[in-house]
Design brief:
6 copies of one chain form a homohexamer. By secondary structure, chain A is an alpha+beta fold. In chain A, 32% of the residues lie in helices and 32% in strands. The longest helix of chain A is centred in the middle third of the chain and has 16 residues, at 64-79. The radius of gyration of chain A is 17 Å and the shape is elongated. The two termini of chain A are 21 Å apart. At the A-F interface, strand 1, strand 2 and strand 3 of A face strand 1, strand 2 and strand 3 of F.
């Protein structure tokens, strides 16, 4: 029996959308207020979705406490109360768009989770903008 | 790299469920209170989901400002503070069920968006009833 | 020991903001899209708040089932799937603004509830606009 | 035209995670506080998602009132204000994990709904933990 | 300058509404399904509201980390994943109604917090039922 | 007849909690991760609550469009996508704690609104931390 289990988490971070090779004018033209050189920020909300076989004895796909700990150590501790552009090497050469952040989170978790699980991540930048990886 | 980006929007509208060819009794029998000839209404909430390639420079599937503007001009301005049955030609010969409304929204947006994007729309009629098109 | 108990409910209704004595121009000038003569609508959410003495045996201010039934019979059955302007005599000569609707709900419930309770009502027209009566 | 319609519902129940064949130590080691022998509980929220053909006359995949009644009779009346471990024969030999509960709900609804509908169920144990069946 | 700061928390617990001195019939008559002798349960959500002077240097009424720790140690650790009726001496002779639980939480926090703060607590039993103490 | 009307708004901003006169150690000791010198950020949500007389003709305390425009021009345009510490002179010598930000918002709005209205503001820094001014 295959099912999916979803666990949520959150982190609060500063960021900006800015292509260094472009002029400030071009950055503002494309990214609007998101290009503010002094940064802005968000309460990011994450949904981590694992699908896999349900263990017939425990009734679980994965021990939720284990999943919660992995998310805390690998994602929340890494990104919470950080400036994604300045503090996080993951985004040294990568725009901190919600699409890229959700992909980075997926990649980090993918390496920590057994291959037997299918993994999907959703990331809310605001309650009105969010992204998913993979796209399905 | 393919991911999905979702943007929400909303509009407030009046409507009724009513098949003109049927008697009022039959309408009330099937649709209950939703057949009220004087209309009722909802705060409709929309989720527009685009999947596609993430641009390696901008980190974006589509410029969110562009997507937001399309949704505002094509959906919010068209349906907000309207009577879907009386004011909107899209529903002249089409029941204003949540299934049909979500399909109409999908069709309008599909024509305005590049074919390279996959498009899915979710529409909340209330926080307790909602529909998606396509069904996946 | 005095505490407060709050119960929520909801109804979906059509309405318009329109002063009959004014021209259509003046109505649109003041009320904007809310003056649409064909109506628009909302998912109204209600919070009914009673404060009073907690019964030392039952631990209750009022039996929640009783409160739920009063709200259903007096408010939900009266306003759900209605056109507030056309179907509801309460608003025959009263604008269906969120301020007036919350007051009408308060007045109806006030007559059905024992005087020993203090009563406050909050009404959400949308998640972004709401009103309270009395003002405290 | 195929679309999907989703209806939500809820029930409040007590449960515990406990494998009878294991020692209390092993249960606490694996399930943590969820193994409390005196039970704990949740406000479970359900999303029932049906996909199918939209009827060209009524605009509906299924009459929402009929779907609402099936969910009430088959799920809410069965599980609301119950102890899932003690009161519900469905879980006599099955862990009351969120994965198993969502599967049991799916199976009950699957038998009551026409085969022409695809059925998916999501179950929130808390706003932070939820499961889906099937996994897609 | 006086302001108010609010911090939320949550715990998941089982309980029942049952007056031991009454017959089972009378309990079911008054409390309905809430009297189930095998218990049911809820995801309780708490809002702790402190009002007081804002410190001119730190800009804070109270250090939020300190408040968060007090709520965790005194409320979450005490009530989370517990059976309020069986596991918690606070309710040995007190109905576990939402009114009484909010009062018990207020009393515990009141003793741990400096008298210079005004304290109000709101407790959600479900998103549809909640209580406040004091009543204001 | 006095009632209250509430309008919500939001802005996304970066900030830090940092007393310049203190060592970095002391700042981290008191403010924890909030003292990150590179900033973090939030989706701030605002509730602006006006109480006053309901106009007998329009049914309104204030024209909601007017209130919405004042909040947009005075608060959203000023703080959205900004670094509160670096971009906003209001916080040049004032900690950007949620208590101080809600007070600053109140003061700005108080000057723009007629004295006949009572004004209260609630500000969510996250869904789990929020503040109100005045304290009531």
């Amino acid at each position: 029996m295959r099912a999916a289990i979803i666990r949520t988490a959150h982190f609060n971070a500063a960021h900006q959308l800015y292509v260094k090779e472009w002029s400030q004018e071009k950055n503002f033209e494309l990214f609007g207020k998101c290009a503010n050189p002094n940064f802005h920020g968000h309460n990011y909300e994450i949904e981590v979705r694992l699908s896999g076989e349900v263990d017939p004895v425990t009734g679980m796909i994965i021990n939720l406490k284990e999943l919660k700990d992995i998310i805390k150590e690998e994602i929340e501790d890494r990104f919470d109360h950080k400036n994604l552009n300045l503090d996080c090497p993951e985004f040294k050469d990568l725009m901190t768009s919600v699409e890229n952040i959700v992909y980075v989170i997926w990649k980090i978790l993918r390496e920590k989770l057994d291959d037997k699980f299918d993994l999907r991540v959703r990331l809310y930048e605001t309650p009105r903008n969010f992204a998913e990886y993979p796209a399905d």
